[in-house]
Amino acid sequence: MVDVLAVGRGGDDSEALERAVRTLAAGGLVAVPTETVYGLAARADDGEAVARIFAAKGRPAHNPLIVHVPDAAAARAVAAAWPDAAARLAAAFWPGPLSLVVPRGERVHPSVTAGGSTIAVRAPAVAVTRELLARLGLPVAAPSANRSESLSPTTAQHVVSGLGDRVDLVLDAGPCAVGIESTVVDVSVEPPRLLRPGSVTAVDLARILPTLALDPPPRDAPARSPGLARRHYAPRARVVLAATADVAAALADAEDPAGLLTLHARPALAPAWQRHLGSDPAAYARGLFAALHDADAAHCRTLVVELPPDSEPWRAIRDRLTRASATA
Ligand code: TXA
Ligand code: MG
Prior knowledge:
The protein has about 325 residues and is of the alpha/beta class. It has helices at about 15-25, 45-55, 70-80, 85-95, 125-135, 155-165, 200-210, 245-255, 280-295, 315-325; strands spanning about 5, 30, 40-45, 65-70, 100-105, 120, 140, 170, 185, 195, 240, 260, 275, 300-305. The two termini are about 35 Å apart. The mean pLDDT is about 95.
């Protein structure tokens, strides 16, 4: 069994941190807590360490990884250029759930960016992980700590059940506070473009960058983001999205055992599995992946999901649900 070390609970983390630093320095894989989802970390300057990430995830080599750094100064050191938009967004939102795509520098192994000329960087907010990055003193590549195409992990237990012995060490800081992956903004293009919605919303971003483009990149753009693949973030259950008024009918049509994920409790409906996540987008995001993991654990074949409102605060959640429901 992989070792899981509790951290960030007010105790002394120095031994766990030291072990994580040693493991990473030696080219190993450490699952680390971030405020969004757990990351599968390896040193980003070492091609063999990076190859272990791709192997552990079963991730295609053409899908680039996000590099994690303690702060903006460390981000600049892995970038070939630091556009004004990057400086402004980092000052406003770091440490936090925002990844910035910038021109790639020389300090990171080319396999991290799948050979591409840009690199995604972010400074995560969880204190123990920032401390780990600062002590290691190296850029760290960390995709979400799940097998490719499956659900992102928001607890250490999700990491262990998804990756098991494929990872050398797990740092467990409890459930992630945000619960969905970081917002990704490409600031290597003009105007900068939103590539993946997240808890830093388009409204938050537009306050700093009024010219931000929100539409998906053109199909023939050189640096499309492979993680924008239509099907992603999916549970094993078939996900059916339903408007509030259509939930009962969708459930009646669902293959058993059926699950139901709604905004508010629907006691009149009695599927095999049921969960409601409330009408606050932040709380909903925090609970979403754990609910999807749970529906899978309950062996739901179909999961009927009530669609949240079509408004800015729900953009990232609707994005993840839409991808989860895509069939190809
Ligand atoms: O919240 C997060 O971002 C989590 C935690 C661990 O930090 N990480 C995460 O990584 O979600 P991953 O690898 O599962 O998703 C990274 C996304 C993918 O959609 C990938 O295609 C995109 O970022 N990406 C990475 N580098 C890119 C680049 N140079 N240009 C465009 N997209 C990039
Ligand atoms: Mg992922």
